[in-house]
Design brief:
Strand content: 5-15%
Number of domains: 3
Structural class: alpha+beta
CATH topology of the largest domain: Immunoglobulin-like
Number of helices: 9
Bound molecules: copper (II) ion
CATH class of the largest domain: Mainly Beta
Shape: elongated
Oligomer: single chain
Helix content: 40-55%
């Protein structure tokens, strides 16, 4: 209520000020003075006050908004993208300030004065050259640099491809499921037709590479080592978003997407730096994927290589917990389906007789 009354008062003051200016203008016209009088000076002064007030307000709000910025980047490409981002922002802000300062200052400086005449020039090739060339050079540098950073992020260098840890992450309404390749560092084959309530990933256990695959409850990765996330979705579009690693990749049904990154700080280091002993890196889903979308949180644990290896060795393959799946795969499923359909066909024929 108080805000409403305050707003009303401000509106009334503005309306009264506007009416006063109108009256003053009409009076000066009646008196035979030129149309531009005091209000011309007020407008000119406002041309200086407005941008200065605007810059102060924007500076003040940037301080408040800083807490909504992305957290510190803890991946190699994350640092590169952040640097590029801030260089671009500083250039944009500097250009904005310079051009707008000129715009408002000129409006002030060349306010109406009796007897002053405008200078008319048709064209100025030098000016055109400068304001075409300067932005063109700056934009070319930013685009080429951005392109380099983009390809650094999206392509996996050959030497790191072999030693990279391959992890699969699957989005499903509503949670994330991860799979590690086990000792052979090779993720086994899968097929959606093999999915059931236990075999969530639809793993094909006729493929030897599937036999040692394991599915932990958290994503563990070693610090300073390349990691490849193989992303897929089981039902609708999801999106893997881990802001600390500047990692974001859509999980698309029926299509594998990939994200390559190298973490640079362990969870323990981050906890010590922030003074938050319960801090965790996490993944959130950034695709509005249904009612339980908010629940798609998954913890990432970054640890020293030694700890990671120890954890890795302790994990039990899926087959060890579910031995009844051993040897079950696409071939046997297709054979079974074929036999079933033949049986059905025969039964149908018998029924028709
Ligand atoms: Cu989702």
């Amino acid at each position: 209520m108080v805000n409403f009354i305050l707003g009303l008062i401000v509106c009334l003051i503005l309306i009264i000020a506007f009416m006063l200016f109108r009256v003053q203008t009409i009076v000066s016209i009646v008196k035979g003075h030129p149309r531009v009088g005091f209000s011309n000076k007020v407008n000119a002064a406002l041309m200086l006050i407005l941008p200065i007030a605007g810059v102060i307000a924007a500076g003040w709000y940037s301080g408040i908004a800083a807490k909504y910025y992305l957290p510190e980047a803890v991946s190699i490409h994350g640092k590169q993208t952040d640097f590029l981002f801030w260089v671009a922002i500083y250039i944009i802000v500097a250009m904005f300030l310079v051009t707008n300062a000129a715009l408002f200052y000129f409006a002030y400086k060349y306010q109406y004065k009796e007897g002053r005449k405008v200078t008319f020039f048709y064209d100025n090739a030098q000016l055109e050259m400068v304001w075409t060339a300067v932005p063109a050079i700056i934009l070319t540098v930013l685009v080429l640099w951005g392109n380099k950073v983009w390809w650094n992020m999206m392509s996996i260098p050959e030497d790191q491809k072999k030693q990279a840890l391959q992890i699969e992450i699957m989005g499903k309404q509503f949670g994330w499921y991860t799979r590690y390749p086990g000792k052979d560092n090779k993720l086994g084959r899968y097929d959606f037709r093999l999915i059931d309530e236990v075999n969530e990933f639809g793993l094909d256990f006729e493929d030897k590479a599937s036999e040692d695959d394991f599915m932990p409850k958290e994503l563990h990765i070693p610090v300073g080592k390349p990691v490849v996330l193989n992303v897929r979705a089981r039902d609708v579009l999801h999106s893997v978003f881990a802001p600390h690693f500047r990692l974001k990749m859509d999980a698309v049904p029926g299509m594998r997407t990939q994200f390559f990154f190298i973490p640079t700080k362990t969870t323990a280091q981050m906890r010590a730096e922030l003074g938050k002993p319960d801090f965790n890196y996490e993944i959130a889903c950034t695709e509005v994927c249904g009612k339980g979308h908010f629940a798609m949180k998954y913890i990432i644990v970054v640890e020293e290589e030694k700890e990671f290896k120890k954890w890795y060795a302790e994990q039990k393959p899926f087959l060890e917990n579910n031995p009844e799946y051993r040897g079950k795969g696409m071939k046997s499923l297709l054979k079974k389906n074929l036999a079933d359909s033949e049986k059905n066909k025969k039964q149908k024929e018998l029924a028709e007789l």
